[in-house]
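FAQ: What does the model actually see?

It sees only this:
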Amino acid sequence: MKKVILFDLDGTLIDSTDAIVGCFNHSFKELKFNFVGDDEDIKNEIGYPLDIMYANLGVDISKVWDFVACYKKEYRKVSIAKTTLLPKAVESVKLASSFARLGIVTTKTTEYTIPLLEHFDIMKYFEVIIGRQEVQNPKPHPEPILKALESMNLNSSHDIFMVGDTKLDIIASNDAGISSVAVLCGYGKKEDLQKYTSNITDDSFEAVTMIKNFSQ
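And it is asked to produce this:
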């Protein structure tokens, strides 16, 4: 039976840091919010849903959706131009597809995820895309992973792995009852990831190679 690999997106396969940070700063300027942090503070929140990111960055909870709307309007314009594939991302997806069924589980909405995957010509490798709007509870809740498995007619008894760059991915994997491999090419810190998994690699290609070598 084929293995199953679910990939996170930002920080795992793609680098959209410039787009994300730029759109946050754009929304702060447009909505005249006095953001007292810096770009690193924004980067540290990547992986959470946008509304939670804004709240964590100091925006009043009653106004976060105004900021999200402003962000999305700008992101729609710049996402493809300001997003790049991480090194060996294509190679990792191609290798994974040779021995596993693949899916994407991300906090980014599928409205933006699918065009990016198509732009980079890797959409064809994935059976299912689970984004923010497909679930009530985003990562670190296990619902997105469980939703992906349901869409693939699987359950957690299969040989299933999640590859992600933040503790949110790993916590969700643990709570969904599947295995995980963390990568260090994204936004998570090694010391945080080590609290939740012993499988830590430099990038997605090393992660896929590790999964391939795991015994059935």
